[in-house]
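My current task is to audit a protein record that another person submitted. Alongside the sequence sits a line of tokens, each denoting a local backbone shape. Where you disagree with what is written, explain briefly why. This is what I was given:
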Amino acid sequence: MTTSTIEPLEPADTDVAAPQARGRGSHAARWWILGVLALSQLMVVLDATVVNIALPAAQRSLEFSDADRQWVVTAYALAFGSLLLLGGRLSDLFGRRTTFLIGLSGFAIASAVGGAATSFEMLVAARAGQGVFGALLAPAALSLLTVTFTEPKERAKAFGVFGAIAGAGGAIGLLLGGMLTEWASWRWAMYVNLIFAAVAIVGAALLLAKHVTTDRPKLDIPGTLTVTAALFSIVYGFSQAESQGWGDSSTISWLAAGTILLAVFVYLQSRVANPLLPLRIVLDRTRGASYLAVFIVGAGMFAVFLFLTYYMQLILGFTPIMTGVAFLPMVAAMIASSVTSSQALLPRFGARILMTAGLLIGALGMGLLTQIEVDSSYALHILPGLVLMGLGLGASMATAFQGATSALAHEDAGVASAMVNTSQQVGGSIGTALLSTIAASAAASFASGKAVNELTAMQAAVSSYSATFWWATFIFLGGAVLTAVLLPNGVPEPSEGEPVIAH
């Protein structure tokens, strides 16, 4: 049992005046805590795209090959994806404040090492380190949010902001990466995390209460080892599929091993006394459907950030900074949609209607992007689709985040939050591998039998991007059907609160 060293807060209730009843200081502190948590989430989410934009410059500087380049991305994904559930459970067992601060500090140190890298090996090791500490940081941040905001209206606003950042962070990373690479150096794509981390560390140290454990925590070692190996195999298998193809023996072996290990993990969780991931967390309809929605959005969103970036830079001739600016309307729409839908629409229409509608609007926006041509214009052919995507997926993500962390006991908040990040990470890995394979096949099919020239190459590339957008459209449509069937149409219940504010 975890107890606080500070005076506990009164239990949360649904009364509008409850925040004032708990004291103006505590009420104000919660919103400062939201700022700290949102900043840490932004750092983790944008890190993927900010590094991707800087990768070509890093490759020239450190002189590594195209074949090696994927490891700068894969090292982070493997460490982050495979350790998330462990990181979430550690925050439950040893205290969210402690885990959060360790994650922030370690992420900052790894970023500093990456920025100072003098070799390819040093850069890859730093990226793996970012993944390890990110796996501690991300679940701790979301679980802190879950146990801090339990009053319905405040919870809606907080999760709207957090969901918007989770969805829009990748686009912000494109802009920031372009600015830093073009105006400074690729190394600042790593060093910038030191600024984010420093602010978040100071805020967390001042605002979050210290916790102590009265009972010795118990960790499910067999389950931890099994699921870590399973997630590693699955993420690595999909990275192999992207580079080697789906029929490659290595791809098949890793994915098969991951599937078997995952089945073993589920069996173990139903048998052990202190499971790493209690099955009650994922078998709840609201939480289970929300994890599925996060997975689907993660898979489809890569079509926007990856292939639309290629299209704007390689076909339309946008600079990295221009590309980042081009995504800002989507970011604005996503933030507005996340906050508005959580506060105004969710209580009125319920989670099923809102999440299903959001995925349908996202599918419509993605469908508009399938119409791009070599000579398309940004204002007519890209902007409308981006805005619709932002509106739809912002509503879906904010609702899914609330649903995925609803009705939890505080001792389960960390691992349940880790499931959100795991769903998003694995969904992104599958989406990247699947859509990259589709893009390559579509480009080869278009170019087959045609004269080899610059125009044909551009048309083949656009055909490949359009194909991925079609598939992403179908992914969102499928997600809308699944959430309409599986998700109960109510407002997700708040989780059990826990005193987290330092006095």
Notes: Residues 1-25 have pLDDT under 50 and may be disordered.
